[in-house]
Amino acid sequence: MKPYLCKNYFEYSYMKNSLTCFVLALVLFGCKKEQKETLTFKSTTLQSEPCTSCPTVSISIPEAIENSKLGIAINDAITQAVVLELIYDDNVEINTLDEAVQSFKTGFLDLKKMYPDESLGWEAKIDGEISYEDAGIIAVKIESYIFTGGAHGQSTTRFLNFDKKKAVQLEASELFKEGSSFLAYVEREFRLQEQIPDNTSINSTGFMFEEDEFYLPETIGYTDVGIQLIYEQYEIASYADGPITLVLPYAEIRPYLALPLTKDQYILTCQLSLARPKLRPNARLHERG
Questions:
Q1: What CA–CA distance (Å, rounded) separates 129 from 59?
Q2: Closest listed residue to residue 273, CA positions, set 221, 222, 225, 228
Q3: Strand pairing class (123-133; 56-64)
Q4: What is the spatial distance between Cα 159 and Cα 146, in angstroms, rounded to a whole number?
Q5: What are the tens digits of pLDDT across the range 13-71?
Q6: pTM, 2 dp
């Protein structure tokens, strides 16, 4: 090989390798930056003491370790969500988990005095987890099962969505851009999943939307596979039908989102597993009388 060719070759190789290292450095810097903005959580559990004449309470929720504005906002919101599930007397101010458990126990004992022959015990099971987090968004999913007598207990799901940069909790309506065609898009996806023909009423297969018009559920939140919408029991269907869940992949709904995503299953560059298959719940046929 001629000397000047060798020189050009090595200069090209050097520039190519330098460019590769520069790109890798940027990626690593971006990953480290995102990791610094990630909160640290510990698991907080609370179990009621064994007692034959007491309600059973089991709580397992995440707790932010950082005493930052965001960490405090998340912990306060989680605590209030648990309190709402357990509170018995609305006239009593409750601010802690222990107070909430005591309120639940008081309710059971008061009812026991009124109906001493009632043999069924009360039960509360509440579990929380971080369902999504990136540099600007974090979401907590809380699932509850409460039984206070009657034919069956009540299961509910609640999402707590936060804007990390502003350290504030977001209402469900704040997740999406105003004036967008998001509602029409969701209705098309809902009809597709539940096998409701386009040219028929939204209630034509047995659903119970008020005034026969489609609307979003109260429970909406971020997850790793997309925005999850949950219609709770009795919200649009009977108790026997259970919750109606619809998952909207980020790849499809990015134009509708009010906050930009820096992490999802389609554009991740800082995780070993870059993507999951596109998930869709199986279509369900509703047979209602």
A1: 12
A2: 225
A3: parallel
A4: 17
A5: 444 444 444 443 444 344 444 444 578 999 999 998 877 778 999 999 999 998 999 99
A6: 0.78
